[in-house]
């Protein structure tokens, strides 16, 4: 008996299959599907509205043309630490969607020379995403330290670039060894030389020093102005707010003395 005859007999037997048995199998399969649907909790379904078009990248219609949009504050780390990993995963995509919408609206407003309403929303979204990344990194670090005794993060070291500026270089694996990887050596040079680089470093350090010096002078002048207007201010509070200013030394200067008569003790 060849293969074609066998297939013909199998097709005949399949044609004689009782209809009642087929109906019973269909009813049992449908009942199993219904039981499976009832067993799924209601939390697995999302009730939020879905719009699969370009309207996702633009502001809500009720906020169009407004000078200010009501919004909340950024998520801090203490609030994110008490959430589960699933909630953090969902919140990340919500923030990512909001950031994409805000960047699109900012670009559209710049193209049309219009005012972007409440631009601080973008800063708060970025702050929330940064805090969320820090919380996830804390959990990963704690898990790896508990399981393996290491942080689990990519190792890094403090190196200098060709301009003499220091930065953290995050290491990663290569197929070619370091001594034979000519392309990596050409793009990663952790040293500097030459009189031009030394001159640049001197001027750069001088610029940083001038920035700090001007900041100290501004804080000092602000404290002097406050002491001149309000001689009875709390010195401890001033010292905490302006740690770079010697408040006790400023009290001995003549510049803070205002046109008032000191109280007699």
From TrEMBL:
PANTHER family membership: LARGE RIBOSOMAL SUBUNIT PROTEIN UL29M, RIBOSOMAL PROTEIN L47, MITOCHONDRIAL-RELATED
Main location per the UniProt record: mitochondrion
Highest rank taxon of the organism: Eukaryota
Subcellular location: Mitochondrion
InterPro entries for this protein: MRP-L47_sf (IPR038340), Ribosomal_uL29_mit (IPR010729)
Keywords linked to the UniProt accession: Mitochondrion, Ribonucleoprotein, Ribosomal protein
Family named by the database record: Belongs to the universal ribosomal protein uL29 family.
Gene3D superfamilies, sorted: 6.10.330.20
Lineage of source species: Eukaryota, Metazoa, Ecdysozoa, Arthropoda, Hexapoda
Record-given protein name: Large ribosomal subunit protein uL29m
One Gene Ontology cellular component: ribonucleoprotein complex
Pfam families for the chain: MRP-L47
């Amino acid at each position: 008996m060849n293969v074609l005859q066998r297939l013909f007999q199998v097709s005949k037997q399949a044609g004689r299959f009782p209809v009642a048995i087929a109906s019973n199998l269909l009813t049992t399969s449908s009942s199993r599907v219904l039981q499976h649907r009832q067993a799924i909790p209601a939390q697995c379904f999302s009730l939020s509205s879905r719009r699969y078009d370009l309207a996702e990248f633009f502001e809500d219609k009720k906020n169009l043309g407004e000078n200010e949009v009501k919004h909340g504050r950024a998520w801090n780390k203490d609030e994110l630490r008490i959430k589960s990993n699933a909630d953090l995963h969902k919140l990340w995509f919500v923030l990512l969607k909001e950031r994409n919408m805000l960047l699109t609206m900012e670009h559209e407003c710049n193209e049309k020379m219009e005012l972007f309403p409440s631009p601080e929303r973008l800063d708060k979204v970025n702050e929330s995403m940064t805090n969320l990344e820090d919380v996830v990194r804390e959990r990963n670090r704690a898990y790896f330290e508990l399981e393996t005794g290491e942080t689990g993060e990519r190792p890094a070291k403090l190196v200098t670039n060709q301009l003499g500026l220091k930065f953290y270089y995050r290491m990663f694996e290569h197929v070619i060894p370091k001594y034979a990887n000519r392309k990596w050596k050409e793009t990663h040079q952790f040293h500097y030389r030459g009189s031009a680089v030394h001159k640049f470093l001197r001027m750069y350090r001088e610029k940083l020093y001038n920035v700090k010096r001007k900041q100290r002078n501004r804080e000092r002048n602000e404290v002097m102005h406050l002491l001149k207007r309000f001689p009875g201010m709390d010195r401890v509070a001033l010292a905490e707010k302006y740690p770079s200013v010697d408040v006790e030394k400023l009290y001995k200067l003549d510049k803070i003395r205002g046109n008032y008569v000191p109280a007699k003790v």
